[in-house]
Design brief:
The protein has 467 residues and is mostly helical. The protein is built from 20 helices and no strands. It has helices spanning 9-20, 29-66, 71-89, 98-104, 109-112, 118-133, 141-158, 167-183, 186-198, 208-224, 241-270, 274-282, 284-301, 311-318, 327-340, 348-363, 371-387, 390-400, 407-424, 429-441.
């Protein structure tokens, strides 16, 4: 008898090797391949999405260049078309897409199909592009989160993944990869997944999110190049008087961003008041047309600066150009009407450009602080006030402007804005909208829906042994 083959400790040793080197185990490779393909696929979708929205907005710009009054026809007709298509065929595609993705983390697999699917992803890209072709003040970054999560989930089903890499993990990974590729900012994708999507460090998925984000970032950099959307903004903020701007801009940006978020939260939970609210509930298509007309009139008042994502205006401010003094409030107003119309579209880029307008305005009150620094601080502060994710805001602004010198001031302004925003908007915008979305989806379900929005309560279900 060969005693070597019958030594009792060999099986234990093999188990230890299998645990120590999981990459050697064949059954783990479908999981890895799905995440790799997902990260690359999400980046490709984000690039196509960016190209589609850019071309769509160029069509709108050509139309208003011919005559500015054409916006009064294109915007209402375009928003009516998008609102009707959304309500009729893809009701899960409204709005940003981030609340739906957060809500999907708590849904059953059957419910999740209604908000995360290839059909929803395709509709999100197409309808957001049409909205920008109509001049709506929306972004593509939030929709990219929903598109990325939908694509990653589909690949998971294709590879029949089970065990540790479940649908919740794939949703987080796909959403984070979508942000990383949309902004061309890989680090922001990781931070966003932890800070915004999960709202809990315990809910992060070790390795999966990081792998997807890295591959999405590499793919985006390889095909698009390292070209920050707001250009290269090199500026240093010295200690002393310059740091007074950090507190002041952080406070103003947080309060104004919090008021914006509170308006959207109240509108989603209680509806708009009076005749306007009745019109929105009973005649949503007519209401979308009214919102489109309002967007067109605001655009004319702002000399055509409030249409679209706002990337061009934000970059122009950082390059020293001057925009109308009312750009900041009018951009916020155009974004409010775009959101209330019910069309698909995100809030990220409009909020960043509005924040740039806030910073440019406050630069006149802070002559001892470089104007470019005020603009960058305004972007981070107002964005934080809207989404209440200070680390994500600081990292996005830092990466999108290729500026490392202002990392600490950006973080400081973001945390000041976070505290100020919580005073006027107690609940994070996307979390509140996600809970509202869940309550609406489950209104006819016998299962109770948790509507507690306190940050002490994690809206995600407890982790199972499989996770």
């Amino acid at each position: 008898m060969n005693t070597f083959l019958h030594r009792p400790h060999l099986g234990h040793r093999f188990a230890k090797i299998k645990h120590a080197y999981p990459w050697r185990v064949v059954e783990h490779w479908p999981q890895r391949i799905s995440v790799w393909l997902g990260g690359i696929g999400v980046a490709l979708c984000a690039i196509v999405f960016a190209m589609a929205t850019d071309r769509a907005f160029e069509l709108f710009q050509r139309a208003i260049a011919w005559h500015s009054a054409t916006a009064c026809i294109i915007a209402p007709v375009g928003l009516v078309l998008v609102a009707w298509l959304t309500l009729r065929f893809v009701p899960g595609a409204q709005g940003s897409g981030i609340p739906q993705t957060i809500a999907a983390l708590t849904m059953t697999p059957a419910q999740r199909k209604g908000v995360l699917s290839l059909r929803i992803a395709f509709a999100k890209v197409a309808l957001t592009s049409i909205g920008l072709a109509a001049g709506a003040s929306v972004g593509r970054e939030g929709p990219s989160v929903q598109v990325g999560a939908s694509l990653m989930l589909r690949l998971g089903k294709l590879f029949r993944l089970q065990g540790t890499l479940n649908e919740r993990s794939l949703t987080l990974a796909g959403g984070a990869a979508g942000i990383a590729a949309a902004f061309n900012t890989p680090l922001a994708g990781v931070v966003f997944a932890i800070e915004e999507l999960s709202r809990s460090y315990e809910a992060r998925t070790s390795g999966t999110v990081l792998t997807a984000v890295i591959l999405a970032g590499i793919t985006s950099l390889a095909l698009v190049g390292n070209s920050p959307y707001f250009g290269h903004a090199s500026v240093i903020l010295e200690l002393g008087k310059g740091w007074f701007a950090v507190g002041l801009i952080g406070l103003c940006g947080g309060i104004l961003g919090g008021l914006f978020s509170q308006l959207l939260v109240v509108a989603s939970q209680r509806g708009l008041p009076g005749p306007i609210g009745r019109l929105a509930r009973q005649r949503p298509i007519v209401f979308a047309a009214a919102c489109g007309l309002a967007i067109a009139l605001i655009g004319i008042l702002s000399s055509h600066t409030t249409y679209g994502t706002g990337y061009q205006e934000g970059r122009a401010l950082l390059e020293g150009e001057t925009l109308p003094w009312a750009f900041f409030p009018l951009k916020i107003l155009a974004t409010v009407f775009s959101y209330l119309s019910g069309i698909p579209g995100g809030l990220f880029s409009p909020s960043l450009s509005a924040g740039a307008g806030l910073g440019a305005t406050m630069a006149h009150l802070l002559p001892d602080t470089p104007a470019k620094a005020c603009i960058l601080l305004g972007m981070a502060a107002y964005f934080t006030g809207v989404v209440q994710s200070p680390i994500t805001a600081a990292v996005i602004v830092m990466e999108m402007t290729d500026n490392r010198e202002l990392t600490v001031p950006l973080m400081a302004a973001s945390f000041v804005a976070f505290g100020a925003s919580r005073l006027v908007c107690p609940h994070p915008l996307y979390k509140a909208l996600a809970v509202r979305f869940l309550a609406h989806k489950s209104s006819g379900s016998p299962q109770p829906v948790r509507t507690d929005l306190s940050d002490e309560v994690n809206p995600l279900p407890p982790r199972t042994a499989a996770e």
